[in-house]
Amino acid sequence: MQVSSFGERLLREFETRRCKNPRYSLRALAAFLETDHSTLSQILRGSRRVPVSRIRGWARKLGIDQEETTVYIAAEHEPDTRTAERQRQMRQWTAEALAIANQPAHWGILRLCRAPEFRSDSRWIAQQIGVDIDQVNLAFSRLLRLRLLEVRASGEWKDLTGMPHLTERKFRTLALARARELAAK
After folding, report:
1. CA-to-CA distance for 86 and 130, rounded, in angstroms?
2. What band does 14 get if pLDDT is binned at 50, 70 and 90?
3. What is the DSSP string of the chain?
4. In terms of Cα–Cα distance, which of 58, 78, 81 is closest to 69?
5. Which tops the pLDDT comparison, 172 or 20?
6. Domain coordinates of the chain in residue numbers?
7. Annotation: CATH topology of 82-184
8. What is the pLDDT of residue 2?
9. What CATH number does the domain located at 6-78 have?
10. Are 63 and 46 in contact (CB under 8 A)?
11. What contacts 119, CB < 8 A, 6 or more positions away?
């Protein structure tokens, strides 16, 4: 039986003790570990993680060597799949927000697309706002992701900020709020 978490190791220990003594109870193991039986029950069912602060002491009581204990502690520090995905999304949206706050191309594109002489050409936009074409393309993609800009079927770029008098400061505030909203979903 492969054990991948300290909770599974505790369950294996409990099952081993029950095989030796069928009357051995969860309360007995909890008393041995000096913890609450309901907490231990949740851990053994997998509905609660083992408190990292308890692993070393419990491992010592169970006779688990220090090397194995260190592995369990490291494993408990690993986020579960859902948490890891959430952290990845938060890093992505943080990067989006930082780019909005620090790269003027975003504001420049929105400002230009409101102008009557606007052309949806990356080279033209780059020349007008003084950045390179790659920066325009990255900013354009980000504005689309944040739903601050859309491209209509006709090829027209439409500002979705909903503000008739958009200043750079208002734009940044709105863009950062939009990044935060999307990160919260």
Report:
1. 36
2. very high
3. ----SHHHHHHHHHHHHHHH-TT--HHHHHHHHTS-HHHHHHHHHTSSPPPHHHHHHHHHHHT--HHHHHHHHHHHHSPPHHHHHHHHHHHHHHHHHHHHHH-THHHHHHHHHTSTT----HHHHHHHHT--HHHHHHHHHHHHHTTSEEE-TTS-EEE-S--SS--HHHHHHHHHHHHHHHHH-
4. 58
5. 20
6. 6-78, 82-184
7. Arc Repressor Mutant, subunit A (1.10.10)
8. 53
9. 1.10.260
10. no
11. 125
Q: Quick check: 1 pLDDT over 70?
A: no
- Please give the model's pTM, rounded to 2 decimal places: 0.57
Which are the contacts of 140, defined by CB distance < 8 A and separation ≥ 6? 109, 122, 149
Binning pLDDT at 50, 70 and 90, where does residue 136 land? very high
| Token pair recorded at residue 168 | 């750079």
CB 74 within 8 A of CB 64: no
| Residue 89: band (very low, low, confident or very high) from pLDDT cuts 50, 70, 90 | confident
Q: What is the pLDDT of residue 148?
A: 92
User: Which residues are CB-neighbours of 145 under 8 A, at least 6 positions away?
Assistant: 96, 182
Interacting residues of 164 by C-beta distance below 8 A, sequence separation 6+ = none
